[in-house]
Task: structure prediction
Amino acid sequence: MKRLFFLLLVLNAPVVRAQFAGWHGKPYEIVRDKNFPIVSILAHQPHVVDILRADSALNRFFCIQSAALRNHVTDTCSSPANLLREFTIDSNSQLLNVLDDIYDGNTAAFDSLVGCLRLTARFALYEGLAPKEFLHAAWRALFKGINHIVDQYGLGLKERYPDIDSVSFDVTSTAYKQKLKALLKSVSSEAGDSLFFSSSLKIAIKLMELNGRDEAARHEPLLNTLNIAAGTAQNNFFNAYVAILILGSGTADTATHLSPIGAIRCDSAVAYYRRGVAPFIIVSGGYVHPFRTRYCEAIEMKRYLIERYGIPDSAIVTEPFARHTTTNIRNANRLIFEYAMPFNVPVLVVSSPSHISSITEGKEFEDRNRRELGYLPFKAMTRLSRCTASYLPSITSLHLDSSDPLDP
Result:
């Protein structure tokens, strides 16, 4: 089944690549669509939406949440936890059973939805599943993602890396409770979708907006901003490697644009680029260190490569979202796929000696990828020298991560 999916993915590559490149709209609309592709796909499936709205159990759930919103607008004593908990969706709840039953009664309509979800490639890990199970898993991912945002950016819980991903407020303060009340009032007064998850989704996205966490939307669509030249470069010559990937390194303070370690990594990568081992350099790293930094690791590395070494813009692919080494690799793979580079040619990784050791020695890095992403985004990771390694990209890198709303 997986082999069939990958064949279909290749045959439909222009469609998938167009969807990856097509992030448009206001920043938090892009944040929503990147985190919850099932929602943006449903917007183009009115028949499916009508079926969901007509179900009495789903409509009852929506009405309960709407009533909770109205009550909380006038509530004067509830804690933030009480204000928000009613808007999480239990991923093991009866809702999933209801959705399964709705599928059974409307298989043609929902199989069409599943077909569109498959083409986004954002559910690559589910490809071995039959349509009903695939959709079940997609609904569960929606619930998990909403809940994670509410927990992390509403309640200050479940932070994988608190130093860079944490909530921006003291969630126990009276001032924060007032901000939440204003947020809930805003959602309550909005007209719009009456789908069963609509209130929870709106609250989740507004919580990210309240915290100013729009990193997932910055510079999108990349083909119209940072990667205009590289994304359209016609280069059919690939030597030993498809690209040279420089792993980002954060700065120690808010005034520094590029860390000394990041500059050294760029210096090393230039030497390999000038030998002609690959036609592209991928710089990877987001707005990560220190907390809420103004500077993006990838953008500052690109600027350094151009200004110091004269590397052409068309040879630099900028990946400005990754927040960890795991996503440096995963996100680089996504751009390799989106920009029609071959997936069967290895990537050359350039970093510091200790960093290369951490990704090539033992099983710790593999275990971290499985724990945080749910899969390995690479195959055959091999150390080549003190500062380099190589790997083959995995197509599963296209699968979204519903537990990291800043870089799903």
The radius of gyration is 22 Å. The chain has a mean pLDDT of 91. The chain has 19 helices and six strands. The beta strands are 243-247, 281-284, 316-319, 347-350, 378-383, 388-393.
